[in-house]
Write a structure and sequence with these properties.
The chain has helices at 76-86, 92-108, 126-138, 160-170, 185-202, 220-230, 244-247, 250-263, 271-277, 293-298, 322-332, 338-346, 350-356, 379-385; strands at 3-10, 17-22, 25-30, 39-42, 47-49, 52-57, 111-119, 143-149, 174-175, 205-210, 237-241, 265-269, 303-305, 371-374, 389-394, 397-401, 406-411, 414-419. With 424 residues, the protein is of the alpha/beta class. The protein folds into 2 domains: 3-50 and 362-411, Roll (Urease, subunit C, domain 1), CATH 2.30.40; 52-356, Alpha-Beta Barrel (TIM Barrel), CATH 3.20.20. Bound molecules: fe (ii) ion.
Amino acid sequence: MDLVIRNATLADGRREIDIGIAGERIVAVEAGLSAQGVREIDAGGDLVSPPFVDAHFHMDATLSYGLPRVNESGTLLEGIALWGELKPQLAQEALIERALQYCDWAVARGLLAIRTHVDICDDRLLAVEALLEVKRRIAPYIDLQLVAFPQDGLLRSPGAFDNLKRAIAMGVDVVGGIPHFERTMAQGAESVRLLCEFAAGQGLRVDMHCDETDDPLSRHIETLAYETWRLGLQGRVAGSHLTSMHSMDNYYVSKLLPLMKESGVAAIANPLINITLQGRHDSYPKRRGMTRVPELLAAGIDVAFGHDCVMDPWYGLGSGDMLEVAHMGLHVAQMTGQAAMRQCFLAVTETPARILGLEGYGIAPGCHADLVLLGASSPAEAIRLRATRRAVVRRGTVVAEAAPNVSALRLAGRPETVDFRIGR
Ligand code: FE2
């Protein structure tokens, strides 16, 4: 063995566990592990989790906030228009630099797997080339999965389907889509069918921006679930956003949920973005806009939380912290029950790992030695504190470390060190 982490608490509640690592793999997960002469990290009862996974991101746009101008209204539509202005000005090197800077942030926060959509509507496919280069460069640290995303519509944007096929041939992993942005509902449904048939023919996964609207009649998720079932793509398809489900008729949803379960379609909500972009046409009450997370989970459907945007035309905030994402998701979905809070933690770890199809993910013998030691004693506490990433391990190597959040105060002339991880 090369590294042992002592006295860890695991996300499933097991305590006083030692984790033995040899080379790039976990070889032992047990109490009282005997090992001598190897580096040891004392977790001190803190939580050790497999790394955070972001199931939905836009790395080609990240850290471009303010280029060429800021989104004055903060709306989705101005964001899409702004991205259209920025696209012709994108330079490959600058895009790579911004993406790599984001990856630095991600590693520091224990975010070691990211599924990013990449816009393929620019005939130059400059962003595709750039992110394939980023994927190659960061492979030692982050599993980056690319989705070919026709931002301006598969049928609405001339040449988009050809560009999407070229992107896949270049090495992009997943087939994307945006049916609610096509010209008509019928064309949206047609785009879903074409894309799912293409994915099935190529043996690829599918992840579509689906029904990112407050329109309760935007029902492309139904078509996506049907095509998934028809083409035998169960377990390989995700619907991202699904915000229209927030506004749908309850009776219709009672039929939709079993269809999604039967077809094995996963859902990816993006709480930070959904809560800020949806409901913009409402007066009061304003809808939250996030999809029906507790109801999807109760129906046995996988639900992950994605970050979606960080400092880009749509969102001028964010830092690559999936605990911030889980924190927002928990609040927006009112998931404050004990089991529900654990599900929110799983929505940024194990569930997206399953959706991405990550191999060797987890804290168990034989898994990759990828893990995060958090300054918290449970998943709920990790979310509450957006806990310090005490150590981030990738393939057996410590790639990031941070000191606890403590501050020396002087109260009544008495030096005192306050640990902000209160209530433990
Ligand atoms: Fe997105």
